[in-house]
Amino acid sequence: xxxxxxxxxxxxxxxxxxxxxxxxxxxxxxxxxxxxxxxxxxxxxxxxxxxxxxxxxxxxxxxxxxxxxxxxxxxxxxxxxxxxxxxxxxxxxxxxxxxxxxxxxxxxxxxxxxxxxxxxxxxxxxxxxxxxxxxxxxxxxxxxxxxxxxxxxxxxxxxxxxxxxxxxxxxxxxxxxxxxxxxxxxxxxxxxxxxxxxxxxxxxxxxxxxxxxxxxxxxxxxxxxxxxxxxxxxxxxxxxxxxxxxxxxxxxxxxxxxxxxxxxxxxxxxxx
Length: 272
What we know:
Helix content is 48%, strand content 16%. It is α/β, with parallel strands linked by helices. A six-stranded parallel β-sheet has the order 4-3-1-2-9-10, sandwiched between helices. The chain has a four-stranded parallel β-sheet with strand order 6-5-7-8, sandwiched between helices. α13 (249-260) links the parallel β9 and β10. The protein is globular. It starts with a strand and ends with a strand. The model has no long low-confidence stretch (mean pLDDT 96).
């Protein structure tokens, strides 16, 4: 029996882990942030796949039979290849899940107009993963997309609640909404973006719903474990969390307080 592994290229996955722990507090978790090689958003497909696979393998080696890619870029550009080609070769009994599919499975049930907007990093937008996945479940839904390259640095520099963030929040919201007056649902397709939720809602017109991924992924994981008791039985339940970073643990711990809302157990450095 082993913990659930949660991977992100940086810190944003902590917003997902926070909601997963709230939903499933009994389980053990290992969080791995590949902060030394972040951000992934502007890297090519092969590089993102190689980095993500290396981190997934590391979590497998640490005893995790199930890994959640709490990173939209990794989910968009690496998950399918890992599931279809790598897992049968390296760990056929283990599983890797992402954050995009749970979100796209429900977005069509939220929109009333049939038009949704996706706000994400350049890598996620260029992958076309959201339009492709949404079309599988809701072919009638029209998808609009916009990359928001300034939002991640605002959050990581702890400027997301300051006045300086208002310009960039309003700018990107105006741009996505200018694509169609019928957009009534916005998906925050980056795990950093929920920290900007207060300002996002401040500049959105009434009637537009904003979807953050943390709770969606947490509910989806809970449902997955109910449907797969053979995996659930392999997971340890001690209510413990461990944190690892490929960069400086002191920096990780300081940043984790921003994303997690409280201090986390002292992280450890991991060399890949």
